[in-house]
Amino acid sequence: MLRSYLRLVLFTLGLLVGVQVPGFIADYVKRVDAHRLESQRGLEGFQETARRFFDGDMNALVAHYRDSADPVMRSDAQSVAGLYERAALLDREWLAMQGPWYRQVWHLATDADQGLLEETRAAYSYQVLLAPQAIAWGLGCALVFAALVESLLITAGTLVTGGRRRPSPRQWR
């Protein structure tokens, strides 16, 4: 009986963890998009200057600033280059998160920007979504988590007892 309750608890824990996945992904996408839009606004003036004088080439604009005799312009070259690199990074992150759910999960697990991931993790508030995607994630994680933990416990029990099973008590009919 205790084993059955343990299974239920493990399943429920896996379910609650699993329903968090779509919410976290959505929060990450919103954070990336917000930073991306802000970054684009910050570059608008420089992009207009690059369009007018360098056929839209931001690298040429930065090179011009670096080669300038004016120390203020040389100093601003690093700032403009930083803004441009950040905008490119945010564009890549946004594009990576536009694919199907499995690519989004893979990107978050392997290649996401650590700063944005940490920002999202710090601001994330746990939620129980009742969307089909969240329910599917919850059930999938619950089954996998319960099966893994039960398999580990059975393996540990087998190692401790040396593979011997206790005789079950006889039941009277």
How would you sum up the global shape?
Answer: elongated
Order of helices and strands: HHHHHHH
Main β-sheet, in a few words?
none
Number of strands: 0
Helix proportion range: over 70%
Strand residue content: under 5%
Radius of gyration: 27 Å
Instruction: Report the structural category.
Output: mainly alpha
Structure description:
The chain is mainly α and 173 residues long. The protein contains 7 helices and no strands. Helix 2 packs across helix 6 (114-123). The relative contact order is 0.16. The mean pLDDT is 89.
Quick structural summary:
By secondary structure, the chain is mostly helical. It is 80% helix and 0% strand.
List keywords for this structure.
single chain; 173 residues; mainly alpha; 7 helices
Secondary structure elements and pairings:
Blueprint lengths: L1 H17 L1 H35 L3 H10 L3 H26 L4 H10 L3 H10 L8 H30 L12
Helix pairs in contact: 1-7, 2-4, 2-6, 2-7, 3-4
